[in-house]
Amino acid sequence: MNVLGIWDGHDSGAALLQEGRLRFAVNEERLTRRKLEVRFPTRSVDACLTDAGLTAGQVDVVAISTFDPAKTIGRWWRGSKERYYAVRRRQARPGPLSELTRGLKYRTTEWPPGPGFKTLSRLALRQPLARQGLSRADLRLVGHHEAHAAAAAWAADFAPCAVLTIDGVGDGLSSTISIFRDGRLERVAASTARSSLGVFFEHVTSLLNMRELEDEGKVMALADYAAPIADQDNPLLSWMRVRDGVIETRRAGHGLRGALGRIQWRYPNEQFAYLAQRVVEHTCVALARDAVRLTGLSRLALAGGVMSNIRATRRIRLMPEVKEVYVFPHMGDGGLAVGAAVVAASAAGEPIDLDLARLDLGPGFSTAAVAAALRAAGFPVDPVDGLASRVADALADGRIVMWFQGRMEYGPRALGNRSVLARPDRPDLRDRLNIVLKRRVWYQPFCPSMLESEAGRLLADWTGGRNHHMTMAYEVSACFRHRLAGVMSVDGTCRPQLVPDEEPGEFAELLREARARWSVGAVLNTSFNIHGEPIVCSPEEAIDVFLRSGADALAIGPFFVERPAAVGAAHVDFA
Hints:
single chain; alpha/beta; seven-stranded mixed beta sheet; 19 helices; 37% helix
């Protein structure tokens, strides 16, 4: 059975399940080059079918998530999505009625779906599906939080378990608690969209002059630099509480912005971020505690955009009543296509095998395609023997290497396929990467990629588990902090990718070479892009970013290309 999952909202994308296994998944931004694309994922659908060698007529089921009033209106009036996208990404100035439209937007997203809106969404989707040749496939609309929960539950692979979803809004809800047992989800608690932790943090992000739905990670990072404020002195903590698995707020989401602005006026930005971050952590922990109590299960699977907050998920992991926790690696709305496909395939009787040990689920390119792109850019095309060793030597010399290998990763993180690499022990390289190459704020930390066998000695609170894809924070062991100084937050934690030692391929080999050179099998790994742009997908895009970035070298396929001025340099010179 061929089941095509589609998400046509914020960070749209598509995923293909064949016989219950995830064959291919990609988000539209990587193909249109518009960060966090909101348009219908036409190119993603085409990529799914092309990779599998299918025609549109061979798709049995199309599963699409979310049918609340706000989403349904956006499907009929596409210009509303485009206008919000342009303003949110600072590509257009807010109009004179911006505050009014902002309030209306938040009020509309709080409305729960009804049978009429589900029918209207079906009608609105007919046209884009017909353009893709998918009119004959059975169309199934899947609830927003049901899709989040299904993705996390099946990927965690430790049923029975409790499933906790927390995000902004979707189908009238902001969080859910479910039991996953025998391939079935049973919801036991839900919070309305009116009381949304995600919307609370969106408003905080916007008030800090950052882009909501995109820069929440910056707020979390900024909070680390605040002078701590005691919880009893935090004026925001009383705004939100959890009772029997349900979030209760003093104000509805649409009414939070003004009140938050009055609090912000009293504090420096980093302290305001700290106050809000504490609310996120307290609320997530309270929900997790209720999830364990209400379900009687100590294993938790997590999904939803708020679950990208690694400070909060780390606190959940360290709770004494939690035995094991798993965070779905594409936890935000960009992962809804997978969840929708899983729900539809399971309902059709397909046995689900959602193995996400590897996330190289996107497009790949042949050596011939890579060579052609290099020739077109005027670079020599000479394959290198021992590519991993060559790159490790360059990194040991303090150089920055861009790394393009194999199929593109699925999800928001670079995991050794579309990466920018450096030594993990050089704060000066971290700072130059942030300010000049990545062109982002200085206080955002980078992540390490490390061999899984290194976790026990490098991470003080390593507890095992399956969070291998930069979805969880761990404390760096005191005796190794100097070795990971460039990939560690100011609080002494890091968010690692863990690569199995026996994994085949150049990236695991590079980590083994790294261990031979600087004593730890780890590198600094950040996404292959300029800040504000999507991660590169094709060889041509990789070469373009390399030339614009000022990095020293590019390892692409079997080729190693150096910037002439950087040959023999002992450090990266971005001047």
